[in-house]
Amino acid sequence: MDTPQKSITQIGTPISKSKFEDSPVFNYINSLSPIRPVKSIPIPHPFSSLSFTSPPSVFTSPHLTSSHKESRFFKTHHSSSHLTNPLESRPDSTSNEQAVAETTKDFNIDASTRDESSIEVAPDDPVASPCGEDTTDLSLVPYSPPRGENCSSDDAGMELQKMYDNVQGKNQTPDWESLISDASELLIFGSPNDSEAFRCLMMQRASTSEAMTNNEPESSDAIPYEAASILHRGMRRRCLDFEMPGNKQTLSENNTTVAFESSSRCVVPSIGLHLNAIAMSSKDCKTNVTHDYSGKIQVGLQGSTSTMQESLDQTENETREDADQVLEDVLEEPALAELNLSSPKKKRLKLEAGEGESCKRCNCKKSKCLKLYCECFAAGVYCIEPCSCVDCFNKPIHEDTVLATRKQIESRNPLAFAPKVIRSSDSVQETGDDASKTPASARHKRGCNCKKSNCLKKYCECYQGGVGCSINCRCEGCKNAFGRKDGSSVADMEAELEEESETIERSRTAQTHQNTEVLVNKEASSALPMTPMPIYRQQLVQLPFSSSKNMMPPPQQSLLGGGSSSAIFNSQYLRNPDITLTQSRDEKSFETVAEDGGEEMPEIIIHSPKANIKTLSPNSKRVSPPNLDSSSSGSILGRRSSGRKLILQSIPSFPSLTPQN
DNA sequence: GAGTTTGAAACT
DNA sequence: CAGTTTCAAACTC
């Protein structure tokens, strides 16, 4: 931290604006640069300053990895704790109902909650610009959710311009430290898109300022910005998701610049953190850092483009290895990993993911997407364009309302936003042997209340969550395939399926041997539909730590122990009722495996043998969620002999405002 | 795509 | 806490 502070004094203090303007160099530059002085002056300062004053995590050597991120986290955490959640700091937010009622109004941040140095947002902020509206929150809420969908990269410049204007208007001797602070807020929490603008500005600065002797401002910036954006990507997830198309430009794996831009726009679909980020900050940073990583991974994976899909399909294994490699890199060099993940090869995952969680959409008509009825809201994500909701308030521009509503709901039920499917406390102890004996290591938080579905349809939350019913359930005629309320476990069913699978596999093997025999084709064709499962299973079997014993219904993200928005993951996970139990069990094996690892280190779960399922499940439209996409690589990870558990958490814990069990 | 069913969420 | 209503997803046709 010494360096940054030092830099502040060195750069910020000494360089007086007037002096700078009067300098011959400045004049000369002005004459050359198309950039107008009024902008070139103010903006560069914040930036240059920022580049030295921001937390180490942002501007320190790119070599920093985890610590790097932690710093970042602390930074943001710190900020959030002070600036915080508007709900807590804003008196006018005490009335949730009111907040909800005034949804369309209360978008401006109370000046009172800001630091004196905070940049005041023009009251006449762009009307139609969601970006403009949101930017007002930037300095107040570190984890400010996504800007409008179409925020232009110019916004950053605008903000900075405002800052400059403001400072200039008030003081001839700007409070650089404050300004820097504000600027850093913008840089850190602004729209990822802004990073582009920043980069441009930085470049300009680099080319025009002698102060830029500092080497590689580029690289050092890129990563930091990226890192910063990650923190709230979850909140921006939806917006960014739809910016992806624009980023589908062909990416060169070697072109870090392009990769960066792409990644900066990518979003972690995962993450239904929109409202949780704030609360999340209070958690131990380790956990958050982990989420961060997973988020990164996802960003990369989901940033896939369709362009590679075909080729990837043909080289599934290769892709997996790539993913494996990438993930490995992620653990050691997040920033780098992210860049890597931007590679075209991983794009495919994104594509597939696009249809899943990341594109989770609701169809609310009356709830305004502010009730748990709304899947998006319940999952902690903002509604997105594809949603068919009416009068939706679950959008970034209504952040306050969303937060208020959320808080209100949580006041009623603290666990309202907690994962519906929770992992039993003893599940952790369930290793291999026990796993199969227990219907499921995860259970629905409250249990279901099914009357007619027999817990065999997704009406049943337990079933939907891929967990068996438990004593908590009040269901009638429970036949939950993942475990019945009466205690009958899946073990039996698994045994059956196992047997069946084996039979199928055997026949398949036999077929393979008889490949040369044309006559066999007849039978083979009839058996084809069945091959999928066997194949899939085979792959799973390859997993070093995979155990057939663990073959269980797919556990949910909840297995991670962290509260994650179960909704998204779970629902998506088993969205397709057509998915055979076998498949589910396979997926389960993944998670169990990861769990078995026992290590409590950052985990990146990658579930989703989506590709496999897709191919193997003839009648399934969409077998696995987008998140799971990455899972295709997940299985890869599973193979890792290193034993490192990589859990790509599609939905980082869904930190609720209140501690959850 | 429209209509029905279902069960969670919300309300009383 | 129980009963009822509202709601939107899941499902069916």
UniProtKB/TrEMBL annotation:
Q: Where are the compositionally biased (Basic and acidic residues) regions?
A: 103-117
Q: Which GO terms describe its cellular component?
A: nucleus
List all Low complexity biased stretches.
630-640
**Compositionally biased spans, kind Polar residues:** 81-98
Q: Where is the CRC domain?
A: 358-483
Localisation per UniProt entry: Nucleus
What InterPro entries does this protein's entry cite? CRC, Tesmin/TSO1-like_CXC, TSO1-like
Determine if Nucleus is one of this entry's keywords: yes
Keyword line: Developmental protein, Nucleus
In this chain, the stretch annotated as Disordered covers 70-146, 607-641
Give GO MF terms, alphabetically.
DNA-binding transcription factor activity
The UniProt entry, under PANTHER family, shows: PROTEIN TESMIN/TSO1-LIKE CXC 2, PROTEIN TESMIN_TSO1-LIKE CXC 2
Protein family membership: Belongs to the lin-54 family.
| Protein name, UniProt field | CRC domain-containing protein
